[in-house]
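Try this one yourself first.
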């Protein structure tokens, strides 16, 4: 993925098609889509029933003939047709007509660093199917670093940790490129799974991932020294009856922390592969956390204690990547210029 800033400036649309959420930024319009990457289809007729937030709400509540589909998995578009139908529906009529009128529409898409050629092809095919004449691919970590306001084009190290739904990507950047990177298969989904497992093992309660949001909120509150117990509704594992239990958020925090240690291992691995001068820069500058899962309670202090470095969560961690792409297509990022040596 070696797209230049010049080529990106010719793009009119920036797309971040994530496993959890889809974001679309359009030049001169702003961020027009920020919705879950979910569709609901009638499997008998093939008709689209709902997309985005409405489709996500339907998950686990549908009759047999309605299928809830997530077309993106671990940064790869696994169902191109469904991804196109989702995007077509989300961008709306007005914009669809504008795309059709513009015969040279170019799109910028961010993808995980080191994506397989098949992943890249799926992204290109999805966007060309929607009318893009050319698709520029950008590393998510570079886009997120730009979106966080990090000085990626400088000859100094910056570390970005993009915590997504399926994966966490760690990278050290310098002079606009990735020096060392690692992808860890731990993200928001794994954390939700850890909470669901905890409730099953310690409270004999089966709950859907959507129903554990109150626990995240209680843990994120950090109001007092010990958050009050939280009421969680679910189904009894043995009897199958509806039941409500009081859950200690502190015990959930410990279950989450155990799952997050993989992120710390990824950071250590990237630091090990970095030249010493860059690590010295990082000790001063610290680590920037981006991605929706950067808000997982306990992640930031865990990384701070584990690395002994300053750690900062981006102002809007969830939209960093698409905002970075937006800055690139709007021409707010200056191309890297190295002054020629004079004799
Ligand atoms: N306030 C929050 N507290 C805890 N987790 C959160 C919060 N907000 C979002 N998340 C988690 O962030 C994840 C979504 O993050 P994001 O939108 O960056 O993912 P994505 O870009 O779609 O995923 P990927 O990068 O894996 O393709 C979800 O798993 C969600 O549970």
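Now uncover the answer:
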């Amino acid at each position: 993925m070696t797209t230049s800033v010049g080529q990106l400036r010719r793009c009119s649309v920036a797309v971040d098609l994530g496993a959890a959420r889809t974001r679309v930024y359009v030049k001169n319009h702003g961020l027009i889509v920020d919705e879950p990457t979910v569709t609901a289809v009638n499997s008998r007729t093939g008709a689209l029933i709902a997309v985005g937030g409405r489709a996500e709400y339907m998950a686990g509540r549908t009759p047999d003939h309605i299928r809830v589909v997530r077309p993106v998995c671990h940064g790869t578009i696994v169902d191109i047709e469904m991804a196109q139908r989702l995007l077509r529906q989300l961008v709306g009529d007005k914009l669809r007509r504008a795309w059709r009128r513009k015969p040279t529409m170019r799109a910028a898409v961010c993808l995980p660093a080191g994506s397989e050629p098949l992943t890249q092809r799926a992204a290109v095919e999805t966007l060309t199917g929607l009318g893009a004449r050319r698709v520029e691919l950008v590393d998510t970590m570079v886009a997120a670093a730009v979106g966080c306001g990090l000085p990626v084009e400088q000859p100094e190290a910056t570390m970005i940790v993009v915590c997504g739904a399926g994966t966490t990507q760690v990278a050290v950047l310098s002079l606009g490129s990735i020096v060392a990177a690692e992808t860890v298969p731990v993200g928001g989904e794994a954390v939700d799974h850890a909470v669901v497992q905890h409730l099953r093992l310690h409270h004999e309660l089966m709950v859907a991932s959507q129903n554990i949001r109150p626990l995240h909120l209680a843990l994120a509150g950090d109001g007092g020294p010990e958050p009050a117990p939280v009421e969680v509704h679910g189904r009894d594992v043995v009897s199958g009856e509806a039941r409500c239990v009081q859950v200690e958020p502190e015990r959930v925090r410990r279950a989450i922390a155990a799952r997050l240690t993989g992120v710390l291992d990824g950071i250590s691995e990237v630091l090990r592969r970095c030249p010493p001068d860059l690590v010295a820069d990082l000790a001063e500058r610290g680590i920037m956390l981006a991605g929706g899962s950067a808000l997982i309670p306990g992640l930031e202090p865990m990384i701070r204690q584990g690395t002994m470095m300053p750690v900062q969560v981006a102002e809007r961690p969830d939209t960093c990547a698409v905002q970075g792409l937006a800055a690139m297509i709007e021409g707010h990022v200056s191309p890297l210029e190295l002054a020629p040596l004079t004799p």
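Discussion: Residues 249-273 form the longest helix (25 residues). The chain has a mean pLDDT of 89.
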